[in-house]
Amino acid sequence: MTFLLGCEHVSLEFPTKKVFVDISLGVNEGDRIGIVGKNGDGKSSLLALLAASLEPDDGHVVRTGTVTVGMLDQRDTLDDGDTVIHAIVGDMPEYLWASEAKTRDILDHLIGDIGREQSVATLSGGQRRRVDLARVLIGDYDVLLLDEPTNHLDVSGIDWLAQHLKNRWQAKQGALLVVTHDRWFLDAVCLAMWEVHDGVVEPFEGGYSAYIQQRVERDELQAKTLSKKRNILRRELAWLSRGAPARSTKPRFRVEAAQQLIAEEPPLRDTLALKRTAMSRLGKQVIDLEDVSVRLGGKLILDHVDWIIGPGDRYGIIGDNGAGKTTMLNVIQDLCKPESGRVKIGKTVRFAVLSQKLDELERFKGDRVRELCGRYQTTVQIEGKELSSTALLEQLGFSRDQLNQYVGDLSGGQKRRLQLMLILLDHPNVLILDEPGNDLDIDMLAQVESLLDTWPGTLLLVTHDRYLMERVTDHQFALVQGKVRHLPGGVEEYLTLRAQRIQASQETIRNQGVQATSRQKKKAQTHTAADARELKKQCTSLERRMGTLRSKMARKQEEMQCADPADFVALGEIQNDINALQAELTVREDEWLMLSEQLETQG
Question: Are 331 and 295 in contact (CB under 8 A)?
Answer without folding.
Answer: no
